[in-house]
Specification:
There is one protein chain. By secondary structure, this protein is an all-alpha fold. About 65% of the residues lie in helices and about 0% in strands. α4 (about 40-50) packs antiparallel against α5 (about 55-65). The protein is elongated, with a radius of gyration of 20 Å.
Length: about 170
């Protein structure tokens, strides 16, 4: 793929789109082009959806360290039901957009304590009753470790629907 690095004077986006077309399947070449033209979101999408390599995607996200890249990585990790990794990626992206999917997956895995940091991040931008309810539940499932935080949280005004818990 050294030839891609030597090429100049071309429309990188068009060439990369053509390369990743299933008819040609030149996914490594598309990835190389996206990296060369500084399109990290498109690059991670090739790694995730065309090369199907979550490990490589994680390494790439760490390298470029951009919120949008971590957001795409988190979505892929959710699809693979790797909740802990998805939570870390979403926290690094400061992206609460997938909170409903995160909560659903978390309920099926029964790991409420892993959810606390993600929900705290989500509360910074979202004012949603579900987020607050889940945070209270996560604190409660965390036991004594979160007891004082839980007491403080429920005593402060927030959007928690205390009369109709979701669990």
């Amino acid at each position: 793929m050294d030839y891609i690095n030597k090429l100049d004077q071309y429309d990188g986006m068009k060439l990369a789109e053509l390369a990743k077309d299933p008819e040609y399947g030149l996914y490594d070449e598309a990835l190389c082009i996206y990296k060369k033209i500084n399109q990290p979101v498109e690059a991670i999408r090739v790694i995730i959806y065309n090369l199907n390599n979550i490990k490589q995607a994680t390494e790439y996200a760490e390298k470029v360290n951009q919120p949008a890249v971590f957001s795409d990585l988190g979505k892929a990790q959710l699809d693979h039901q790797d909740l802990a990794a998805a939570l870390e990626a979403f926290i690094r992206a400061a992206d609460p957009s997938m909170f409903e999917r995160v909560i659903l997956l978390n309920e099926s895995l029964m790991e409420k304590q892993d959810l606390v940091q993600y929900l705290l991040m989500a509360r910074k931008t979202l004012k949603d009753r579900k987020v607050d309810n889940e945070l209270i539940y996560a604190y409660a499932k965390g036991g004594e470790k979160y007891l004082s935080v839980l007491e403080s949280f429920v005593s402060d005004p927030c959007s928690v629907d205390k009369l109709t818990p979701s669990h």
